[in-house]
Amino acid sequence: MLIRRPPDIRSSEITPERHYFNRRELLRSAGFIGAGALLSGATAADDIPAGHRRLAGVQRWPASLKDPPNTFEEITTYNNFYEFGAGKADPAEESGRFRPKPWKVTIDGETEAPGSHDYDTLIKPHTLEERIYRLRCVEAWSMVVPWVGIPLAAVLKRYKPTSKAKYVAFETIVRPEEMPGQRSRVLDWPYVEGLTIAEAMHPLTLLVVGVYGVELPAQNGAPLRLMVPWKYGFKSIKSIVRISFTEKRPPTTWSLSAPNEYGFYANVNPEVDHPRWSQATERRVSSGFSSLFAARQDTLMFNGYADQVASLYTGLDLVKNF
Ligand SMILES: Nc1nc2c(c(=O)[nH]1)N[C@H]1C(S)=C(S)[C@@H](COP(=O)(O)O)O[C@H]1N2
Ligand SMILES: [Mo]
Q1: What is the CATH number of the domain that holds 124?
Q2: Which residue puts its alpha carbon closest to atom 12 of ligand 1?
Q3: What pLDDT is recorded for position 289?
Q4: pLDDT surpasses 70 at 64
């Protein structure tokens, strides 16, 4: 049964700004609030500093993870976004010049309705959902994040893919004047990614526009990025400006860069190690007090989403198709 609640009154609306920081973190570390209590307030944005625009009309998704989410601070200061630099702190520190609005996305390839659309045309017809997902980076760290977005399938269907559309390709913006990492050649720009059409249309695949009830910060891929929760984080491409329906499998940035280390599928799989490290366990990113006691945890097949997605891969050799 679907239980839908009306949009919440965010507690940041009633909590003085100076109290936002670390109160929850402190309580959580000290064990005063468990997962259940935390969940009810996790998305209430009382960890959010001033200056972030709240998204209106966000509905809670009933199947959200029950694990305690990472804090807004953790989610927005420990990032991978090579366009702003290769260090974890670079995306937050080096993205001050980035302007995510106005924003246009080109939809082309095998579609009956190719065109260029602004952000509002893409997003506004849809109901925003808050979904708490696990995020597992191929580097063996993980987080739990309350994303806000819409199922990608709902958007893609509006642009009528043809019967030849077997894959969906995605491209990140190129703006070296605003993205200092793009002035070096660590990766080939633009960053590109791709999914099979079945993966792109899967109900878990989210087009993300926010986190913790506010618009996506630049470092998390403003103004819109992908989130494919059963795949390694690098599949979840940020700051998307092109979505193309293709007949052939599209190239993807990390498998171009190191084909023996990063495959097209990149499904989270504890049984298939990276050539240079084990994927059997992961470190849940934490800060403050709790980081002193953090133990590694087992990585789950398909990042814990096997019941929902394993059927996409029946008959596929997951060792060869890593
Ligand atoms: N364009 C672009 N998208 C990207 C990346 C990137 O460097 N550039 N990094 C990826 C990787 S490796 C991860 S783990 C996630 C991190 O998302 P987060 O910083 O919001 O946690 O973004 C992915 N999307
Ligand atoms: Mo990653």
Answers
A1: 3.90.420.10
A2: 234
A3: 84
A4: yes
